[in-house]
């Protein structure tokens, strides 16, 4: 599995701000989106371009243009939605497929509760968004679903990940690519990433 932990100072700075314990909902949401944008910049560095000739101000000029790549952005409800606007800044024409999954609080098993995928998803590259990769169960379940519908070109954008979750994801889906702002230390006994930033869904939506 290709794993890219982005060490860019802007990414590290914004991630640091997200870890402040009394961060407001507004600020957490803004930073999720900004990191979604920065992760997308890196995750799309292999998009194919074609050279076309256009009429410029001083005559004909050759320019690069992204070659009609079909992309679907796949936020995992709820917390993945916080990253979505930042991702769409760079991919404004991408279609959106939604997958709803929550974790059982005791067993940490992922419970899928909703999906609405774009048609012909087998022809698209999927960019799965979820800020937290803890046990990996939720992202693995989302990828299982995408593959069931024939989508095999998959990149995952997460903000923080625990080593345990990365290992589980690599075992189940070694063919995907994973882009991260940070590989954190571990998962605690309650299933939270340490240091992480707590419950990303609650912080994004102001619940609890
Ligand atoms: O890697 P895992 O162990 O599966 O944990 C990560 C998942 O947990 C959180 O979702 P949560 O169940 O809190 O739902 P929410 O986003 O609606 O709050 C988070 O947003 C991930 O989807
Ligand atoms: O640290 C964690 C782990 C799972 N889900 C979260 O929102 N945070
Ligand atoms: Mg949550």
UniProtKB/TrEMBL annotation:
Which reactions is this enzyme annotated as catalysing?
Answer: UMP + diphosphate = 5-phospho-alpha-D-ribose 1-diphosphate + uracil
> How many cofactors are bound and how?
Binds 1 Mg(2+) ion per subunit. The magnesium is bound as Mg-PRPP.
Show where the Phosphoribosyltransferase domain sits.
Answer: 7-207
Q: What class of enzyme is it?
A: transferase
**Enzyme Commission no:** 2.4.2.9
Alphabetized InterPro entries for the sequence: PRTase-like, PRTase_dom, Upp_B, UPRT, UPRTase/APRTase
Question: Annotated pathway, please?
Answer: Pyrimidine metabolism; UMP biosynthesis via salvage pathway; UMP from uracil: step 1/1
Q: What GO molecular function terms would the record report?
A: glycosyltransferase activity
What regulates this protein's activity?
Answer: Allosterically activated by GTP.
Amino-acid positions noted as binding uracil in the UniProt annotation, renumbered to this chain: 193, 198-200
Record-linked Gene3D superfamilies: 3.40.50.2020
Q: Where does 5-phospho-alpha-D-ribose 1-diphosphate bind?
A: 78, 103, 130-138, 199
Listed cofactors: Mg(2+)
Task: Provide the alphabetized UniProt keywords.
Answer: Allosteric enzyme, Glycosyltransferase, GTP-binding, Magnesium, Nucleotide-binding, Transferase
Quote the function comment for this protein.
Answer: Catalyzes the conversion of uracil and 5-phospho-alpha-D-ribose 1-diphosphate (PRPP) to UMP and diphosphate.
Family named by the database record? Belongs to the UPRTase family.
Q: Entry's NCBIfam families?
A: PRK00129.1, upp
Instruction: Kindly provide the name given to this protein in its UniProt entry.
Output: Uracil phosphoribosyltransferase
Q: Which organism is it from?
A: Candidatus Blochmanniella chromaiodes str. 640
| Gene that this sequence comes from | upp
